[in-house]
């Protein structure tokens, strides 16, 4: 049997370039990595203890595929208080991380041939999933609008594809990789054009608790009947390895997403769900000390990168700085990160996998010492390369 006999849409998708790059540079024992969105904070002690208690209490049996009822009730209350979500427990599905939440939602909402809008730069997962599900993808470059998707660009994209059935939009707010966070006014403007065109929104709000100087506002508040919200505990509670995600959606539609979830993974791990109950019941303030540190780190990295000659996108949320490489370096994002890793032992993420090869992404979810060393190396690379190009 030849490889080209398998699903051609799988062959179209390449393994994650981000993960491969991170893996490759990890072989360097001196490497300092600011690559993945991995908080350097540990899981809060009370959450760890809840997981330990679940093990000791033999909570090791199959959970209901929707997730434990106490967890879904806790999620309903928690996110109502945090962001004003209006979802009952029966409108909430527990998934294996936000990645599976997005994947199950896309599979359930769209059929092969439908078109989905993805504003770029964007997390590469979305484009991979639309390809795997045989969807048409419309990429909208937001760089000339401050990395905010405007209603005008949405309508223009629809008008430019009259033969496509544009059914969906994948919105990340706050954004990865830019850190841009939408205002209530920007969300309301988007909702109008989406409602008029009958477009579903999969709103990835995993960074919703990590905003600086502004409150996160969910599009589900103004477009509830056309929105599926994805969230989870990886970023807010530093629980990346626990793989606990949540989907919030309208009655009826959430039931269909749950079917995809059931036949894909059965259920999220039982012990992890007990840890999540604790996080959502008694961990309302767990992200606050992290947020204080992230804001300090954001300001430091943004200042240092600007001093090094980069144009910096001002992050309103998440924990990334997306910075445009100085033109006089004559480097694209892969050139820059490869030289930085090889010669200076610092790992940054290239912008190319996100859709812009002229930028690099810096994750400041790292220690102050790591960030200081990285910024020193970036400045050194810029200075040394600039000297060579002016000789």
How would you describe what is shown here?
This protein has 391 residues and is of the alpha/beta class. It folds into two domains: 3-42 and 287-388, Aspartate Aminotransferase, domain 1 (Alpha-Beta Complex), CATH 3.90.1150; 45-283, Type I PLP-dependent aspartate aminotransferase-like (Major domain) (Aspartate Aminotransferase, domain 2), CATH 3.40.640.10. Helices cover 43% and strands 14% of the residues. The chain has 13 helices and 13 strands. A seven-stranded mixed beta sheet has the order 2-8-7-6-5-3-4, with helices on both faces. It has a four-stranded antiparallel beta sheet with strand order 9-10-13-12. Strands 1-11 form a two-stranded parallel ribbon. Strand 9 (311-312) and strand 10 (320-324) form a beta hairpin. Helix 7 (151-160) packs parallel to helix 8 (184-196). It is globular, with a radius of gyration of 21 Å. The termini are far apart. The model has no long low-confidence stretch (mean pLDDT 96). This is Aminotransferase. It holds the Pfam family Aminotran_1_2. Keywords: Aminotransferase, Pyridoxal phosphate, Transferase. Residues 30-375 form the Aminotransferase class I/classII large domain. GO terms for molecular function: pyridoxal phosphate binding; transaminase activity.
What secondary-structure arrangement, pairings included, does this model have?
Blueprint: H1 8-12, H2 17-25, E1 32-33, H3 45-56, H4 69-83, E2 92-95, H5 97-109, E3 115-120, H6 125-132, E4 136-141, H7 151-160, E5 166-172, H8 184-196, E6 200-204, E7 227-232, E8 245-248, H9 253-265, H10 270-282, H11 287-307, E9 311-312, E10 320-324, H12 333-344, E11 346-347, E12 349-350, E13 359-363, H13 368-390
Parallel strand pairs: 1-11, 3-4, 3-5, 5-6, 6-7
Antiparallel strand pairs: 2-8, 7-8, 9-10, 10-13, 12-13
Helix pairs in contact: 3-10, 4-10, 5-6, 5-9, 7-8, 11-13
